[in-house]
Design a protein that fits this description.
With about 600 residues, the chain is α+β, with helices and mostly antiparallel strands. Helices cover about 45% and strands about 15% of the residues. Strands 12, 13, 14, 15, 16, 17 and 18 form a seven-stranded mixed sheet that branches. The protein has a five-stranded mixed sheet with strand order 9-8-7-10-11, sandwiched between helices. Strands 2-1-3 form a three-stranded antiparallel sheet. Strand 17 and strand 18 form a beta hairpin. The longest helix is centred in the middle third of the chain and has 43 residues. The two termini are about 50 Å apart.
Length: about 600
């Protein structure tokens, strides 16, 4: 613990708030909330024994900031926003993008349709699920429509509207055609009730309906339909296999078990709906919390952002944030951390899954750690860098004979690609093929943005800059560091491809890292990614210019017609392949213009340059 941290600890308040831990580079490595900031933050810096993962994080803390909030609820909301913003390495990071599917029935409609959604809203509709881990919501919907003939279309059907004719699903026996009033509202409501009973756990009725239909199809020698119904029965059988004995069908509960070996951890979630286990999912986590119960609390608060919260949540550890959770989600829920009977059996099952996952994937997680955090720590040691390179930037130039010159900037954080921070530069001031000057221009523009604190990807200081090339490229780029007086703050090296030599500024002899070592593999990964990114950008610019220049050469093709052609065909290659009739389908292209385009490409076929 340095003096800066010691002084800040003395001044900490006992009020609730959020704290941010930073490393020597100023990068946020952990965000946490606290009911009492002084007590909570001080715990990290006491000499007491801590889990390995927590001690590893504490060893990297160089500074911390904190924000006082009016309440724990405000602290929770602020913590969530800051975790999303900074994506700290030692926080649980659950992706918001992909969500588990639900089956939705909007009971407000006169003829509710059955649909699949990944977004749960407070709209009065009934939601069933989530479905995952071997249960496909689409297959369940197909099974329902085959048995109960509910509509799945997007037609807006009212009590008075009547469609012109039924759709194909009606002819196939998969819809009761409420759109043409082939079924009354009352009869349709009865079908909806039967579907809800099935989704709540009653499998017997749907199994009997499908079995009868399969036998009838087989007796009438409609074997193709009989096979389809048989496949639907397999889905019902799969659901029946997940029934939990002695568990009422109207019970919904989620189970969470956390297992940790000190360095790696995993949280297993198990979803029980309608007396069945709908899914089991494992989430590896690297969390900097001191107590395992708090890790579990942090997880479930993120987990339920877009999911329905059941009436019971069974946990392997007691959590102190029960009241806060209920207040945050405005939901009445019972937390059980010391379960008995069937609840204990469910928790034991989740724990067993967590332990098995940890045993099987421990090597994989350690390998990932070695190739990321382990690699950057080793890189600091082997190359004698000023700091652990938590943020590494690599630059590469791409051009053909000095034309369409571009430079790529790729960013690795914590040893992993941070693609949202990648940037690309068009070289504006350099004439001809001059990689030295091109790199110098790109790096000057990047560091100028850092000094000005202009642009999200440019505000952070890199710990290490890698130049793809040899001593010449490195020397010209190091001049830029000196121009900005950053040579003492940022390490810079170049990596030459021939025998993977690492050069330092003002040193004639290269450093050779051991072939196959984790630190060399990391450098190669970053260099290759910069090369790929530069090549891709260069190719896109070249193709765009080629497309524009080709169409500009055709008489009577102005900007509007070029835009219309590119919108219709995408590239000049596709325009060149089109015949006169197809060209005339583009808005603004008359027969005469279509003929000029067609015969231009017949007389001037496109020559494709080989890829770099």
């Amino acid at each position: 613990m340095n003096e800066k941290v010691k002084e800040k600890l003395k001044k900490l308040t006992t009020k609730p708030g959020v704290y941010i831990m930073r490393d020597k580079s100023g990068i946020v490595i952990y965000v946490g909330k606290a009911k009492n900031l002084k007590n909570r933050v001080s715990q990290y810096f006491r000499s007491s024994l801590k889990p390995i993962k927590v001690q590893t994080m504490v060893d990297n803390i160089d500074d911390f900031d904190y924000f006082i909030t009016m309440s724990e609820m405000d602290a929770l909301a602020l913590e969530s926003n800051l975790i999303k913003k900074y994506q700290p390495f030692y926080n649980i990071l659950l992706k918001d993008g992909k969500q588990f599917p639900y089956i939705k029935i909007n009971m407000k409609e006169p003829f509710p349709k059955i649909e699949i959604t990944r977004r749960v809203k407070k709209d009065g509709a009934k939601y069933f699920g989530p479905y995952f881990a071997g249960l496909d919501a689409r297959e369940i919907v197909k099974t329902i429509t085959m048995a109960f003939r509910l509509r799945t279309c997007n037609l807006k059907i009212t009590e008075t509207s009547v469609a012109k004719r039924e759709c194909l699903n009606y002819s196939l026996g998969l819809c009761s055609a409420p759109c043409t009033k082939k079924i009354t509202k009352e009869e349709y409501a009865k079908e909806i009730t039967r579907v809800i009973n099935f989704l709540n756990g009653n499998d017997e009725e749907i199994e009997k309906i499908l079995t009868d239909k399969m036998i009838a199809a087989s007796n009438s020698e409609n074997f193709e339909n009989a096979i389809l119904i048989r496949d639907r029965l397999k889905m019902v059988s799969k659901l029946k296999e997940r029934v939990v004995a002695n568990l009422p069908k109207d019970i919904s509960k989620d189970i969470f078990a956390y297992e940790c070996d000190g360095l790696s951890g995993v949280i297993t979630s198990m979803v029980v709906r309608g007396g069945k286990i709908l899914g089991i999912q494992n989430y590896p986590c690297q969390d900097g919390e001191l107590e395992e119960g708090q890790t579990l609390s942090n997880f479930i608060i993120q987990y339920y952002r877009n999911l329905i919260i059941p009436s019971e949540i069974i946990l392997s550890h007691h959590i102190e944030d029960e009241k806060l959770f209920k207040q945050y989600y405005n939901k009445k829920v019972t937390f059980i951390s010391n379960p008995h009977s069937i609840n204990k059996s469910l928790l034991d099952m989740a724990k067993e899954n967590a332990r098995e996952y940890l045993e099987k994937h421990i090597e994989k997680e350690k390998l990932k750690y070695n190739n990321t955090i382990g690699a950057i720590n080793s890189l600091k040691q082997k190359l004698g860098l000023k700091e652990v390179p938590m943020r590494i930037e690599c630059y590469d130039i791409s051009n053909i004979s000095g034309t369409n010159k571009v430079c790529s900037m790729v960013v690795f954080k914590n040893g992993q690609p941070s693609k949202q921070d990648y940037r690309k530069f068009k070289i504006k001031t350099v004439k001809g093929s001059n990689d030295f000057a091109s790199l110098k221009e790109a790096l000057t523009r990047r560091l100028k943005r850092f000094i000005e604190q202009n642009g999200d990807s440019f505000k952070e200081k890199p710990n290490l800059i890698i130049i793809d090339g040899g001593k010449g490229q490195l020397s010209s780029c190091f001049e830029v560091l000196q121009d900005f007086n950053l040579q003492k703050d940022i390490d810079m090296i170049s990596l030459a491809k021939r025998i993977e030599e690492v050069f330092f500024p003002n040193q004639s002899n290269p450093t050779l890292l051991k072939l196959g070592s984790i630190e060399l593999r990391l450098l190669q990964r970053i260099r290759d990614e910069a090369h790929r990114f530069a090549i891709t950008y260069h190719r896109n610019i070249r193709l765009t210019k080629q497309t524009q220049s080709l169409l500009e050469n055709i008489k009577g093709i102005g900007p509007k017609k070029r835009e219309a052609l590119l919108k219709a065909f995408g590239t000049s290659e596709e325009v060149a392949k089109a015949d006169i009739d197809l060209l005339q389908t583009v808005p603004g292209i008359d027969p005469a213009t279509a003929s000029r385009i067609y015969f231009y490409f017949q007389n001037n076929p496109i020559n494709h340059n080989p890829e770099e």
